[in-house]
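Translate sequence into structure tokens.
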Amino acid sequence: MMVRRSWSLLGICLLFLSSGATAGVAALVDADWLEANRQEPGIVLLDIQEEKAFARYHLPGALSAPYSRWRTREGMYPGKERLVAYLGRLGISASDHLVIISTGLSAGDMAASARVYWTLYMLGHPAMSVLNGGLADYARQYGMKGLTSGAMEKPAVTVYKPAAASQNPLDAGEVAAALKRGDQGVDARSVAEYLGLRRGGPKERPGTLPGALNLPYDWLTVAGGGELLPVPAIKRLMAAQSIPQGGAQIHFCHTGSRAALTWFVDHALLGNGEARLYDGSMAEWARQRDL
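Result follows.
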């Protein structure tokens, strides 16, 4: 525990200095930071557990914002109008510092948090963080007594106005052009999917994007759990997979969820402003025979 706590304090210091979408705001925070800052003005806890899980356990004052509400039925980016309306219903303003909290039991939970972070980044929200280890790590360190249960109290509705111009997700044509320019594809799926031994759906062709390198998203967490590896270990892992440190990169998986975690690490933690996420990923690409 002492070793992990020491990394957390060092990591937070480094992350405040890292560049990225939210300069001056830590992209990754731990349970200690959350406990010290969660009641500060302007800090809003965004719990992305589904409603039944939220009703069982959550932090007092947290907003219930289930992960499923941040994507379309097909798993894609929902668009500016829908997001603005949703954030307004939650009572959120562009000046709020949003702390994204998942259950934190798996790499998939961390990927979900990273996907919400990316969605807010695309909208132009300036200040958001992901809780490393999620609610599970907070409970391990501060106990279940600090949590509460029940449905969310209905927040006062606001008119959400993005602080910056929103961006549009990449489509298949833009990705194809970027790959031809020399952008590096980073496949966040499993080794079996990357090699074409498994496919995401019956209508998809097996394989990966031309020239892509493989970085399975769950390798970025401790034993596939809900805690990210320390940055030095992440850098060694990327080097072992021959993935460049910086430069134009396109992260993808099946529908842009798992790849959100590799994008988050590259963009928000390592400060690579040229890292992008391909929202449609293989679900879009592999169905087009001309690609």
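Note: Strands lie at 28-29, 43-47, 63-64, 97-101, 128-131, 184-187, 213-214, 249-252, 275-277.
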